[in-house]
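Supplementary Note 3. Input sequence used for the single-chain structure prediction.
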Amino acid sequence: MAAGLALFISIIAFIFAFLAYQKVGGLGDVKKQGEVLTQIGDAIIKATTSLREKTADVLDKMETGLRSKEIKPTPGTETKQEEKGSNHIPKV
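The predicted structure, written as discrete structure tokens, is reproduced below.
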């Protein structure tokens, strides 16, 4: 008898829980949150791609600037390293 009463009370509690879940949004709210998170994820991917491209452009410009500013020796002012040849590595 006590087990039957406990079962009846648990079924009533389950019904109330289900009704409360439906009142606060149910599965529709979960779907909305999923769509919002998908949109946020897409925006992050676009921003990351844009930032990656801008960084690559800046690094390319820096490289070009540095390579154009390299000091080229004038004739007759070679260093000892250049006189020995570029394959010579000094011993430490």
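The two ends are 94 Å apart (CA to CA). The chain has a mean pLDDT of 81.
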